[in-house]
Each structure stands twice: as structure tokens, then as C-alpha cells.
Give the backbone structure.
Amino acid sequence: MAMIASLFTIKNSGMKFSYLCIAAVGLAILSLGTAWLAILLAFGFCFHLWQAFERSNWTMIIISSFASLLFVVLFSAHLLLAIPLFWIVIAILFLAVAGFISEDELAEEVIVEDKAQEIFIENSPLSSFADRKKLREGYYAWCDDTPIKAALVIIRLEGFEQVNQQIGRDFGDLLLTQSANRIKKLLENDEIFDLGSQEKLAHLGGLNFAFICSLATQNHLHEHVIEHILGATLKPFNVANCTVEVNARASYVDCGAQENNFDDLISYAYLALDSHPQRKVVPYHQQMMVEQLEQQARLKELANIDFSSELELYFQPIIRNDDGKIEFLELLLRWQHPKQGILSANRFIDDIRIAGLAYPLATFVIERAAELAMALRIEGIAIPLSINVFGPEMLNEEFVEFVDRIISEHQLEAGDLIVECPLHIFTNLDNRGRAMIARLNNIGLKVCVDGLGDNPVLLSKLPNLAVEYIKVAPSLTADFSNQNNIRSLISGMVEMHNQQKTKVIFEGVETFEQLRFVKSLNAYAAQGYYFGHPLSSIGLMSWLKQWQLTQGEYIPPTSR
């Protein structure tokens, strides 16, 4: 009768079945008194416990566990002390109590959680904006009406993590609302789709907002709207007596050129934003999906990659401008991909980080470079080798200790190895990072800063780079139509580093005119296809011996 009463209060079908089975076995024990029925009862208790854990109901878990323990004690007493078997039914009666308590408590928890969620939504500063559901309904209403050319635009605000840390999340939410209201005012245009109640901007969640722009009258209207939005977000905000600046990025997708599925359009726009995190405005194109599929395939391949058999180091010389001799050889990582052929490092280095292989790859490259440097020293060739470390994996204790051990094991001298790192790592160094750089210098590893000119950098930070070399990106010397405009800027940077005893190297030198321009800037050395394309390190010795035959004068292949 207790079990029948429990069946009326339990709503879950699995729990009902559990109570029914246990009640049937209990009645059988009372009627027949057969000991083997206790085994079936044990399975019933186990199933009931499993159901309790599945529902994450701690009241039911505790009561069921106690009932199961009581069953074990009573059954053990029956076996050892020969007490009557019908006493086991007490455990079943205790189990029935869980059916009257747990369901009510669980229902109360759900009600409380729903109320809390409603209160949160009502109190959210962005609750007045349309949500993703309204944006979807507006899009499909447009599709069912008279479809015209349109673009879906996503705006992502950035920089709020620092705001939340410095002035608190409450002020961060206030700043987010002010930013969204600025965007909203710029959408007061008849060409922006109305989502209901004169709402044109939808909040997709987090820091992402979206709207749909008609292109019936102007093919590039969405681009102009995005430009105005990005300009408005750059204006400082006054929050809590503080002046705060935030950034914004945007992506857009042509609704007519893609499928009519709204969720696919949203995913395409997100893909465009994530594919190019350094760009302010990113239009979606089909190639991004192809690149994403290729990246997913590479990540699967990287999970089982064998560095020693699939990765290889190529080399390219850095030639001094004053005497035409080799300053050092840069080692460049290549992946012998089974389907796509030879891939340069910039094609897969981001995948290496995603796969968590950045540090193992750095140690592999260091060890392989040390072996080549030792071979050069044995042959009596005193030419340093440089390697590229693409991220902050070098700025930790374990990496520095590994480099120290490798240099000692291969009996290398100071200056035999050079490590090249991206500029952004050095411009954001903290005290710990500076200490790691100093330790690398102390163990004989020279440091080269790579990529000056690829990204904006504060000129005030450049003189603080205490390194041996600094490389100027090809973008600063590629356009010769603006030589007069950039000459003063670049020559000033070169002179500044010359005074700091830092050797400036220009990358991307492909023609004699570029080389002549670089020499006129008083740069220390140059690197590029003019001196030769990267070659496999397997032929490094024969290439160097051939170069030595020229009596130290490097002759580029184009002039031989």
C-alpha cells in the first residue's frame, strides 16, 4: 500500500517502474519467503539509486542510500543470525518515504530557478533590445514577403573584460548598454529592417549585436553604416567619473548569396569574425568555410603527427649589407603534408596552438637546430642559426631550462643560436618576461624581434627592446611609389636602433632596387628571395661549402 501511494505522487516514469518492481518483489518475499528473491530486490535498489543520481535530487539520493544500506544490514542479519526474511520489507517501506518528499522539493527548486531567471531577464540592462528570436522572425517575415537584396551584420564589442576588472561588472553592464544605445541611434534608417516596436538592433547575447540592412537602393549601404558604428564606439564613455574607451569589430554576410536558413547566416557571420581577429570589418565568403573544414582536418592530423618524420627545417640566409657575407641562417619550419604538399609555418602554426602542441614544437625545433649548429661547428663553419618561436611559450622557466640543457649537451657556444619572436610579445613584457629574456641572453641565446611594421606599435616602446637584432617587415619597403613618404620614418627607426646597438634587418628583399633602397637606409642586413628561396636543411652543408668556394662573396642565383 505504501508503494501504491508513492506511485500516485511520482511523476517520472522511470521511478514509477522502480517502485513497482520493488513492491512486487517485496510482496513475493512476504508470500513465499524464498531467500533468492533478495537478489532481485538488490537489483531493484541499485536501479532506484541510479534513477536518483540521474535526476540530481539529493534528498532522494540520501533516503535511497539509507534504505539500501538498511537492506544490506537486514539481509546480512538474515544470513548470519537467521532472523526472519520478512524483516527486509522494512527497507522497502523506508524507501517509499522518498516518493512523498523528493518530488515536491524538486518542483519547488524548478519554480525558484524559473523565477530567478525571469527576474534576471527583467533586470538585465539589455532587456529592452530585440533578441535573437525576434531577429529570426523578422528575417523569415522578410523572406516570405518580397525578398530584396540585404545583408546580415554582426557587431562585436571588445575590451569589456578589462573594464569589468578595473571598475566592476555593474559599471561594465552600464557601459555595454551605453554602447548599444549609440549603435541603436545610428540605425534610425528606413533601410534597416524593423523587428517590431521600432526595434532594429538585436542582442544576440554576450557582446554581440546584429541587424539586417536592405541593399535595394545602395549596394554598399551596410558598409557605410558599419563605418559610422565603429567610429561612434571609438568615442570615449564617461562611466563612474572615469573616461573609458571600447573597441568594436563587425562582419556581414549577403543574405541573397547564401542559403535562406537564418541560423546558417548567423554562423557564417561568426565564422568571419573568428577567422580574422585582427581585422575591424570582415565580409563572409565561401572560402572561409573551406578554410574552416581544412583546419578541422589539419587538427585531426595534428593529433597524431610525428614531428621527426613529418616536420622539416628549411633555411634562408641573412646577408650583411656592407660586405655581402652571411650574418646567420634562419631556419624555417615546414610540414610535409600528405595531401596539401609542403606547408609553411604560417599555414598551420595557429592549429598547433589550438592542438596544444606549441611547447612540444618549440622544444623540437630548438633540439633540431642545436644538432645542425653542432654539425656546423664540427665542420669548422662559424655561422649562427636562428629559429622562430611564435608565441609566449618561450617566456617560462621550463623552456629556459630546456634551452640551457640543450646548449650544454651539444657543446654550443654563445651566439651559435638565435631565437626570433614576434614583436607583440616584447611590447607587452612584464617583469617576469623581462627576467626570462635576460636569462636567455645569459645562457648565450641571442634574441631577434620579428615583424616590425606588421602591426601598430608605440614608438616609445621601441628603444626599450634590449635585443641583438630587429627585423623590419616587408610591408614597409614593398611599395616603392611611396619611398619619399616612408623614407624619413623608416630611416629614423633604423638610426634609433643603430644607436641602441641593435642590428636592423630588412625582410622581403626580392629585387635589386629594394636592396639598394635598404642599403640607403643604413640597415645592417637584408633577407629575401633576391638572395635565394628557402632550401631544405638536408642540403645545408653542401650549400655552405659551395658558398665558401666563392671566397666569402655571396652571389645570388639570378646573377650567376
Observations:
- The CA atoms of residues 223 and 281 lie 9 Å apart.
- The first helix runs from residue 2 to 9.
- The chain has 20 helices and 17 strands.
- Residues 102-123 have pLDDT under 50 and may be disordered.
